User: Fold these one by one.
Assistant:
Number 1:
Amino acid sequence: MSDLTLSVQNLSKSFRISHLSGGLGGYRTLHEELTTLPRRMINRLRGNGKSTSETFWALRNVSFDVNAGEVLGIIGSNGAGKSTLLKILNRITEPTLGGVDIYGRVGALLEVGTGFHPELTGRENIFLNGAILGMTRAEIKRKFDEIVAFAEVERFLDTPVKRYSSGMYVRLAFAVAAHLDPEILLIDEVLAVGDAEFQKKCLAKMEDVATKEGRTVIFVSHNMDAVCHLCSRCVLLRNGEIEKTGSASEVVANYLGGEQQELPTIEFPAIDSDASFRFAGLYRSEQEAANSFSVNEPILLNCSFNVRRQIEGLQLSFSVFNFKGERIFYSSVSMAKPAISVEAPGEHNITAVIPAHLLLPGRYSITIALHTPKTKLYDVRKHALGFRILATMLDRYDGFSGDDLGHVYANVKWQRANERGARSAISETVSVSAAS
Amino acid sequence: MSSFSTLATVSSGPTTVAYAEPTAPTSAAPRPSRTPTLRLRPTKGWAALNLRELWSYRDLLWILVERNIKVIHKQTALGMTWVALQPLIAAVILALIAGRVAKLPSDGTPHLLFVFCGLTIWNYFSQTAQRSSTSLINNAQLVSKVYFPRMLIPLSHTFSALVDFAVTLVMLFVFMAVYHIAPTLRLLAIPGFLFLTAITATGVALWFSSLSVKYRDTNYALPLFLQIWMWASAVIYPTSMIDSSLWQTLFALNPVVGFVEGFRWCVLGHSALTPTMLWITIGMSVLILVTGAFFFRRVERDFADII
């Protein structure tokens, strides 16, 4: 027996991108509007008014149904329309065409801690955030103890949240949203933050919400492990359209195996931050941009970014993720020897070399960030770049393609133990590497 | 079946529904006969005000009001003292200018009292208008991440500014005692004029806050606009300065004149306010509020995309 709780019908959403010279994004001042008015009117009269703006379809003809008790995963690469879809379901923005029928109350956790006010205490913020998410005061009171226990912040209830550690902040935010008791819970990539222990707790809670309480969960994530584990069904979006719907494992396999035309370089539009990325790219050599490498090639990651003012302790860092969304390693400019500082204002251009013989053949993605450790994130580009490590004839992984062989390429020395015995062979190797 | 409650009510108690069998992934579920709780469709043109939804979110309104009050004086050494200090200093300066320099009439009342009386109600108006006009931008995080009736954000300032008004009102009563002005039953009419002030201020705030989402210019224009508005209204001079009664009546097209004069009538007992002027004021206030609300609703749907 199944109950339809959400029905999306031919949903489309378009944005108008204006091609105005100068100015940040879509902001126009009244002055600009007035001074460009004559030109725009002339353009319109001449019939080429379209040259100043174009329509971009973030979602096109998306239709699907979700039933009660189902956990639906939504996956797709960046810019596929996942977040736009969630924003429409959550009524933050309106569809351009088509529509959605919702049977029940919708609760959403689109970003951790929205609606938290740093000056207010934990207790006050629980009420504020709960009310913003759509709870009544009585309802919050009823759930208060449960929320506090889940977030593990009892001792800090009367401390302003600006003094909270980032972990406490996230725990409290998730706790409020998870106790919202909506019929439909929308969750967007919130589990990227918080420690592993807490992520596990969150996933367990989401599972409970769906299976024990029979509610509907719509879950957007890059973490394919979590999607496979949690979701009964999955929708794959590509360029605003549904590419595939089906069982989670099937769709995830399709997504991971699918031909991905990822560009080796990417330029970023300006954002309003004191430190922001301009460009990132992967190179084989100084000239040659590439997105597939062989195991025995080093990979050059080049980033350029702009720092607006002196930022004490600013770091450029990146992480490499495997196709399941698991982090393989992290590195930041502070680990460089000799040290490289990116604190000074101006344009920086930094290249990191990922050594050869490190990654197994497979698909990887790179997230880059500009941040001051544990305090502030200036710019982060999640999974901005993707690349492939190809198996070559020389490395012997060929015969195992598709098998789970672990996370890293280990350049293991093998040798036959001779008559002198195994131990002497090992001590020989150790003494050689110690000497070099 | 399980309780698909409406938005306003809380799904009562534990709604553990026993699902006998794991639901098969059905993409072709029978279309239910019950009506959806919510239909999301593109809207065009003017939208309804949807006051019922606003009412269902009243808890959030109070919590936002509470937040505004708590936050505004956090980490200031003088705290709430600022609320008293600001109008006091402004009144002293303006009374000196009006009484000594410009030698404006004050209908026989001591200048300081006359000006303070006008400022009490004007400050409530300008503070509400000013704080709520920037409120949407200040809460851009909320507007682009969570759904709730956006009108609540500017509206919350209409209520939270009442705290400042109450403090100033108490000071005004002290002034009255100092100048030996006996309180009369007319004071009971203060809430009426306060209400008029509140709806005008809310109307102005709705206009400006919705404009500010698209045009940041409003942040610069509004303080200037309010300053001019103050001088153009009978805040530190009486309407009786104007000789012709026809012009006095036309002066009331500026609703601020109506409620400032009305407030002065409550406190000081004399005013040029006529019933005609009062009706014009009421009409203008309602007009500003209603047009502001409809304009807000019309542009509201794009807020998240352009803020």
Number 2:
Amino acid sequence: MTTEGAAPERTLSGTIWSEVDRALSGITASAERAVLDVIVTIPRDEVIRGLKALKADEALAFDYLRCLTCVDNEADGMDVVYHLYSTEKRHNVTVKVHLEANDLFVDTATTVWRAANWYEREAAEMFGVRFRGHPDPRTLLMPEDMTDTFPLRKDHPLAEIEVLQGEGIAWGVEE
Amino acid sequence: MNTLFGLPVALDALIRVLIIVSVMTVVVMGLIYVERKVLARFQQRLGPTRTGPMGLLQSVADALKLVAKEDVRPTNADPWVFELAPFLVFVPTFLGFVVVPFALAWSVRDLDLGLFYILAVSSVNIVGWVMAGWASDNRYAMLGALRAVAQSISYELPLVMAMIAVAMVADSLNISEIVRGQAMVPNIVWQPLPFLMFFICMLAEMNRPPFDIPVGESEVVGGPYVEYSGIRWSMFFLAEYASMFIMALLGAAVFLGGSAWPFGEQLGLPWQILLTVAKAGLIIFVVIWTRASFPRLRIDQLMSFSWKLLLPVSFAQIMVNGLILVYDLPYGMSHTLLAVCSAAGVLFVASAINRSVTSPRPRPLLIPRSEAAR
Amino acid sequence: MTNALQPSEFEVQDIMINMGPQHPATHGVFRMVLQVDGEIVKDLIPHIGYMHRGAEKLSETMDFRQGIGFMDRTEYLAQFNAELGYVMAVEKLMDIEVPERAQWIRMILCELNRLSSHFMFTGAFGTDAGVFGTSFTYAFRWREEILDLFEEITGDRLMYAYFRPGGLAWEVTDNFEARVRQVLELSKQGIKDIDGLVTNNEIFKARTQGVGVLTKEQAIDWGTTGPVLRASGVQMDIRRDEPYLFYDQVEFDIPIGQNGDVYDRWCLRMEEMRQSVRIVEQCLTKLQPGPIQPERMPRMLRTPPGEVYIRTEAPRGEFGIYMVSKGGNRPHRLKVRSSCFANLQSLRDMSIGQYVADAVLALGSMDIVLCEVDR
């Protein structure tokens, strides 16, 4: 909480990256250091192989999926973010997969951790990312037939929804 | 046939029935008020306070509300069965009042097979439960009704067996005679085990906690009642409390000496009524107490408790009673033997219950923060 | 056509029972469809989303001070813990140092919040198990005392919005320490009461032991957190493993269950309540007068670009805030990693093959808050 090192020039030395790099041999991964964790970026085609390697590696043993979500970077596509943890070794790593805006799919992580099931369903309905091979590709939080709108995307309107709800509601359109 | 004021039998019966139904309905409403108040005290609450002095009119207000409510019947419900079901619960329950002795000479009709009769009619109402559950066309109701049948059948048997055991000792099936026979010592002294079984089975028969599985709020949301509203629902409700009252009176009469012990004969009618009310009140209080403090059992635990423990023990009790009574021993000796055997049975049941739940299992570990920190 | 009975006419059909969204045992608007064979659960399909209010989307439109209040509405039983995650994320991104006094007060409030939340659990779970309201009123009596204290400090009983990036909104009341001690004494009494009423009850034991078992491997694989995970024997407590606030300066025990069943979860929570009391007592001895906000706080909260995943140990388990900032005064993306969301996934594994009544208990033992699940 108190000191996290000098903020701008965080180096990767002394972090878990060296171990991760070793475990991910044969996979083109790059790393950067965020405020708390190391972020490892893996290409889309290799991500499941990479995650399996991270889980299987004895020194790393990332057996626990903390969180799986997406970040919409608008024109720059989307990131799928995996937060991993090892219940045995007690260390963290963040894995990122970059997706191009016109090509939103990635292989499902349910084959690695079953916990990914609901997270992926949520990410799929909220961002429109397809998780290939997902065992249960229904909507989770949204209505069952709402498969064409992706509310958490940045281009999804927030204020204009009021206008859609009825003719008498005028306070959504001020200008 | 001695009838009131020498009236014809039919008219006499009508008057008695009217008295019982109207008076008992009021008594049952009072019972609901008492339960709410007592339960509230167990739960650190006040209970009803707003309607009338100390909330005394709460039951009246509730009754008025229920009567005024719309009587809803689901579209898919079987109309006849759905509408008839409350009567099949209500009527048999109130039939039980016929033989219950309120004082030594006070019962509607003094039947020679009174004990048999009361057990028989009190088990008829299960038909109404099944009808309600089936006709509602609701899966919670169906599940609740099936649970009710299973439970009722399982607990009917030990209840009857317990009653047979005590009837052997009392040497009669006439409730009034059983009460008179206890003028010196109440039956609970000779037969504590049948009393324990009677109490447990009574709870199960009335679907009271911890045996409220058919109506369990958190599982089947009221069971067979779930689709009922208004007057029909209140009939179920009245029947439930009426049967609690009957069972309490029966327990007081058969085991606790009813209006005879102590000095019932000598001190006259007011004392007898006071005795009955106090003893029945005690049983009702314990029933409410149980409700306030026990969680609900699961259906398989309930069944195995009845079939694997209560029923064999009740058979054993009957056999032991028979063995002791057949040898025509002097009164003091035979009854002391009975009391000892029965008390041993109570200890056995208690230890069996205790053994079945206290299985050795690892306790949670407590790991100090600093110890495991790296 | 022959009149011979076809074998198919004897086929036993399972029935589907729909529990919820309005059902006394689903703690809000959770819905599960049970496929039952008599009383045995063959399959269970959970449905969530009835309480979805788009909290994550809305947070993107609110600046960092407005977002705090929204966290209360996300986790309405452990509000301080939820606020803490949010303000810590902002502090990490902006690199703000929080004064000591503010940290200690945060810790006291979070632990008291854990107490009140677990009191709520004991009450609600007792009702699930069929104690007619007694455990509920017992628990609420003591929870009420804690809420009164919170009200004195923050002015609100449920939606506190008291933590700020950098510290606290305002100084606590003058009699804060005395009041906390008083509340602790009452809570100890409350824990004893509930223990006496429920924990050693024979029927309660019979109902909960060996029910809803989750093995260690299953618990990790499903990503369960908090007491559910620890009951399965996994030693994971973020307060210990990645200490935030001053959890590395106080001494407390972490209860670890060995059976992974519902009864262990209950015992764990009871033990956690005792440990919370212990932590708060230690915090009180270390509380010193001082500032509650950094001296140089920017008037406008603007974070540099970056991202952070903050995890805190809320009463129900890991409460994560994943905040991505692209600069500016509001988050670009805010993901709330809800603890119940993760726990609820494992419900199916816990319930299959058990009785209907056990499925209800398994659900109750997770202590779900639907607002947090659906966000």
